[in-house]
Amino acid sequence: ALDIGHDLGRVVLNARSFEREHRLVEELQALDVYKGRLIATVSHELKNPLAAIVGHIEILQDEETGPVVASSVAAIDRGARRLARVADDLLLLAKVGDPDHPVVPRPVDLGDVVDDVLELQGHSLARKGIEVVVEKPEKPVVAMAELEEIERLVSNLVGNAEKYTPAGGRVTLCLAVEDGEALLECTDTGLGISPADQEQLFQEFFRSTNPVAQAQPGTGLGLSIVHRIVARHGGRTEVESQLGRGSTFRVRLPVAG
Ligand code: ADP
């Protein structure tokens, strides 16, 4: 009788601790939703005044002014554009973390996305003296995905490859279909990432403590956006890197057809 009482007591205790954990999980989920809404609201509120600022800067840039005013206006322009980029990143981070807005996948030709991104960002890579190589099979690599998000994903990876690769380096974008998945690889010959940093790379706001990397502008949001986009597509993100040698970011997405 004593044992039964003891066991019953344990069952009750277990049930109570299960209840507590369950409540904790619910509270954390509610906090996460709140955080997402907060980020979305703040970034949305930032965007409108910023658009007005950028518009007025353009008007000022068209005016004949002296060199002091011109250089101040140019500095304000850079600052405003940087802020606008941060607001965009925050808005996107909230969107891709929102379970109420799942992806609406359609066939997306990854080769076209790579071409489009390079059309926009290729000049900047060339200006820095970074060679760009694209390797894709004859047959198009088509993923089931949301086009805008995949464009952003590729743009973030290419942007990082550029930022963290010194002049004279090389960035290789490689596409393939492997094990029934669409594979996109972005390899650079840049700074590389330490094993400790690799573990935190996909966390929001994480930036490496490497001073050379920190000298580049950034928010630490780019890779967390990449990671969330891939995850919500049911894909996987992997990184392989060696300090001083370079990095490879590998993204696997569901293949179309
Ligand atoms: P950001 O570039 O704005 O700092 P990210 O989330 O895109 O934010 O990247 C987080 C950090 O990971 C960067 O600060 C950088 O230290 C490191 N990192 C990202 N991509 C690379 C890369 N291709 N080579 C070396 N380091 C990288």
UniProtKB/TrEMBL annotation:
It comes from Nocardioides cremeus. It is found in: Cell membrane. The keyword Phosphoprotein applies. Keywords: Kinase, Phosphoprotein, Transferase, Two-component regulatory system. One of its GO terms (molecular function) is kinase activity. This is histidine kinase. Residues 41-257 form the Histidine kinase domain. The chain holds residues 329 to 585 of 585 of the full protein. The keyword Phosphoprotein applies.
